[in-house]
Amino acid sequence: MATKKRNVILDVDTGIDDAVAIALATYSNKLNVKLITTIAGNLSVNAVTKNTLNFLQAINKRNIPVAVGANKPMEREKDNSIQAHGKRGLGKYKFPPLELTPDKLPAVEKMHQIIMRAKKKVTIIALGPLTNVAELLIKYPEVKENIDYILISSGLLHDSKRNPYLSFNVMQDPEAARYVLKLADKVVICPSNHGHTAFLTPEEVERTRTTNKTGEMLEFIFRSYKDRHVKVGIATHDPCAVVYAAHPEYFSKEGMYVHIRFLQKQGTGVIDFDTNREPNMKVATKISIKRFKKLYFETLKKMP
């Protein structure tokens, strides 16, 4: 009996962990990636789009449409101060000449088309700033009925209230994040904690390299990745979100009151998790590291 796959749209700002997430999603036997949309985040939207197309070509997933999204946040200028993925987003890896091109429709229009035409509800996996998703909901509020849920890779549980972790995907466009979180009953948060606990050890990075050509490419790309929470190894924030969509049973979940708290001093916002108020959405609180790693390597083996 064929496995029923979940329809998903990946919204990405393709840097290193986004690339791993794209690979896991497109080779998952639980997910049907209907569309990938790009958003300015780690880099400009044009650079992100090029990275996404290059990577899809490299892993032999050429038939998934890629639509170009917003190049700046909704109400502010883009912050270019954080460079965790190198200047080009995927390290210094040299891809072959690019043969793929983006879809003719811009991201919001293509998302609307895919969601409204789908025979079953679509899950949006948001792995970058939430500008595209917010603009979709503002322009086409009717899509809400056809969205199963919006999975957001961002935030940090048990964070310091006085000195909070400026989670990249929210601090880049907190106004967009605030708007998306208004759909509380359709939002699931996969915090960055999981990427810090289910990180790839140096031994697992070496095992990645020796698995196949894709593994060799990933290991080379990993050399440019910097995350202050994972000193030795490779953080897996966005891959954890994709695994949640495919296998929610790998996670413990808890209802929490989640909102965007604006910080006057830093001039941006953070995701605030409040366990003392009435819950408004679901949060992934713990991951089975063993099952995550097993799935990662099983999926990697399917790739070229």
Task: List key phrases describing it.
9 strands; 304 residues; 11 helices; single chain; alpha/beta
Q: What do these coordinates show?
A:
It is globular and about 50 Å long. The mean pLDDT is 92. α8 (202-211) runs antiparallel to α9. 34% of the residues lie in helices and 20% in strands. It has helices at 16-26, 45-58, 107-117, 131-139, 168-171, 174-180, 193-197, 202-211, 213-222, 237-246, 289-300, and strands spanning 6-12, 31-38, 66-68, 122-126, 147-153, 187-190, 251-263, 268-274, 281-287. The protein starts with 5 loop residues before the first strand and ends with a helix. The chain is of the alpha/beta class and 304 residues long. A nine-stranded mixed sheet has the order 3-2-1-4-5-6-9-7-8, with helices on both faces.
Task: Summarize this structure briefly.
By secondary structure, this protein is of the alpha/beta class.
- What radius of gyration results from the CA coordinates? 18 Å
Q: Structural class, from helix and strand content?
A: alpha/beta
- Listing every helix as H and every strand as E from the N terminus to the C terminus, the arrangement reads EHEHEHEHEHHEHHHHEEEH
Largest beta-sheet characterization:
9 strands, mixed
* Anisotropy-based shape: globular
